Structures are given as C-alpha cells and as structure tokens.
Amino acid sequence: MTVLNRVHLNGLRAVETVARLGSLAAAAGELNVSASAVSQQIKRTEKQLGQALFERTPGGLVPTEFGAVFTARLGAGFRELAQAVALADEASQCTLVVSVAPAFASKWLLPRLSRHFARYPNVLLRIDASGRVADLDHSDIDIGIRMGDGKWPGVQAELLLAQEVFPVCAPSIAARLRSIEDLAQTCAITDERSMISWDSWFAAAGVEPVTFLKGARFTDPMLCLESAIAGHGVMLAWQLLTADALADGRLAAPFGVRAESGLGYWMVTSATKSESRKVRDFKAWIREEIAATMAQFRSLDSAA
C-alpha cells in the first residue's frame, strides 16, 4: 500500500487509457476531460514513478520499454477492478429490498419466505422492517407493503388485502363467551397506536358497544397478540396478524363477525421507476400467499 500511496489513481487511469486507445484525444474522450488534462496527469504520474512511460514523438505518445510492461500490468489491474465493480452491480440487481412493518414481517411474511427462496433461489431478499414510511424514490427499497387507505403521493399502490377486524382470544376465554354481552366480563388488550377501534366491530355485529374490564396496554401489536395468546384478555385483531395463531389453535375468534376497517394492506412501488422482474415476481408470489391465507380463513369459518 505504501507504493500505491505515492501514485494518484486518476493518473494511472490516464496512463492506462492512453496506452489502450493510442492517443491523448481518444483518452480524453473516454475520460471526459481535455487532452491537456490527460497529458498533465501522465507527466505527474511519470514524476511520481521516477520513470518515463511514453516517448514523445511527432506521431504522438509511444510507450517506452518500461511503459509497455507497466501499462500491460496496469490494464490487467483495471480489468480486475471493473469486474469487482460489476460484481457489486450484479449483487444489487439480484437483491430485492422490501419495506414492511415489523408486525407484518414477523407474524405473516417471515414464516412464508422459505417458499420465495425456493422459487427464486437467485434473488436475495432484504427485509427492511420499520414503522417509517419509506421514500421509494430516494432509497434502495424496491417495494413496500403498507397499511392504510392507499392514498400516498408519489407511489403506485395496489390493494393486496382489505383489512377486516374481529376479536381474538385464547380458546379458554372463548369458551366462556356465549354472547357478545359476555365481553363486559373480559379484559380488553389495547394497542395504543392502533388505527382501528371496537366501534366498527360492534356496529357490524349489530349491538351496542360493551364496556370491557381494563386490561394490558401496549404500543406494539405483536405484544398485544402475545398477550392474547397468553390468556390475558381479548384484542381486536385482523387477518394477517392472527392467521397462523388461529390456524394452529393458539387463538380463537369468537362470534364469527368481521368488520371492514376501511384500511388495507397495499403493495407500493415508485411512480417514477419501471418495475423490475424481481419486483413483478415478488408481487405475484405474495398475491398467491395472501390467497392461500384467506382460503385458510374461509375453512376456519366453515369449521366454526
């Protein structure tokens, strides 16, 4: 490294380009600088090396005996550098960055990713699990899954699943809930940051709202879910958050009533960028997985 430290990279690029293209003018065109700037870079590099690299002739620059050997090695080195950069580009092209909320990632997406890995083994997935709304035009994020009404500026939004809300609880608690009025003897598990409320569910059930016993309060839906599984009370949940826990019996959904929240899961991509093949493939895959989850929900409804 001490040898390289005394020679500037731009000068070496100028030397290699002139040797490869055969003239200052051609090298200046490739490097997007003036011919005099290329000439100055070469002189500076020769001074740093203490060796003449080119002979100045009426026909132009001709490599010296040392220069011919030096530029041949230099050309091989720059080709290796170009291949290294190409590897980075290739890795970027094969990496799919998906922005999702932590609850969606943990409780629904993660258990299903092995099927994406199997179908697309050459695509590396990076999950950006964050509650922030990602800027798709000024980041490396290829696609986002957002919860909301789909009205975000500067993005293409496609509805993935309309959100329906319903109460869930441990089976031991569900066994005691013979009517909706029995909820008054049950603790409510509350997500303090939730965008949904019990009012819409009571309206869908056609009954007056019930006052719950005071229960645990959290600022994370995943903690609310775990609290419900642990038997601490009833929480108002939605399909993708509870799909697996309902399917394996850790949770029950009493009363069989689901209410539309007016929100949904949306796939969002930049409105200014064309969709790559890896994004189109991911969208098709996740649609299939959502369809399978909802078929599972319908089978649970039929069993109930």
From TrEMBL:
Keywords: DNA-binding, Transcription, Transcription regulation. It holds the Pfam family LysR_substrate. InterPro entries: LysR-type_TF_proteobact-type, LysR_HTH_N, LysR_subst-bd, WH-like_DNA-bd_sf, WH_DNA-bd_sf. Gene3D superfamilies: Periplasmic binding protein-like II, Winged helix-like DNA-binding domain superfamily/Winged helix DNA-binding domain. The keyword Transmembrane helix does not apply. It comes from the Bacteria. Residues 7-64 form the HTH lysR-type domain. Belongs to the LysR transcriptional regulatory family. This is LysR substrate-binding domain-containing protein. It comes from Mesorhizobium abyssinicae.
